[in-house]
Amino acid sequence: MTRSMQAVPKADAPRIPMPAVDPALNLTPSTWKVLTDSIFPAAKTAEGILLAVHYCAARNLDVIKRPVHVVPMWSKALGQEIETVWPGIAEVQTTAARTGQWAGIDPPRFGPVIERTFSGKVKRNGAWQDLDYAVSFPEWCEVTVYRLVGGQRCPFTEPVFWLEAYARQGGAYSELPTEMWVKRPRGQLMKCAKAASLRAAFPEEASYTAEEMEGKVIEADTSIPVAASLDATGTVPAKADTAPSGVAEAASDAAPSKASETPTDSEPRAEPITLDPSLQARIDKVVARAAEKSAWKQAEQYLRARCKGAELKQALEALDQAQQTAEQRLAA
User: Is the pTM here over 0.85, yes or no?
Assistant: First the structure.
């Protein structure tokens, strides 16, 4: 048989069959195979991959470079995982760089290492399995991002805590970390901290990332319980020795007490009370440090742990007002 008569080997079929697509996407069968088998090998549906393709087309991004990820998220309404598309940290950095105002980034800073064993159930091969993961992870991480504002290089820092950020597997109420967060507890937290600071610096350009949304719950109307986040009395544990960027020392002198609930908009606001001058000064210092470091969540946590009743309400209102003022200045 001559060479010209030899049969051409047939390429393997893609892992997921190619659906009918918009011709404007210029998506060929060979490109589809690359997307299903190499770029998004964990995607389970054609719809999830097409969402990524459309996202990249709208943002003028090269989907082959995988700037976005197909992320499974648990839907409480459907009682199952569904596929969503979120940008990766590299895409958020690209968006920030395109503004021409990104002015650099500092190395990550980590809090003290915590060791803990997580237990839970994971469904594999149609059966639920009990798993235990022993993980050593940093309590928190912060990454400072710089942006040119009015010609000046301004820092933006948004600390992120591991227990609040890590991705879970096993459903809506599982506390079991995903394998990636078990293998890379520092690296994954660093990505989340970098994304949070990029959003603080570029609120109109940056969004939540795949690293932050993996394992989260859609339509959640209750909080996901995390053991050890409260002590036996229901009080938020004090963290004055481990707080990032100096928030702790500002709050360490405030009077200790049990945590109270945050006032809601539906509740009538009480008339401001006159606080003890020393307590007022310490609260003002906490608020000022939070504004300086953009550490709003951490400041709230420390105020909750050390104030109560009307004192807590007034302190949280002052913190909320300072945060709104900071956001308005940034948007101006």
Answer: no
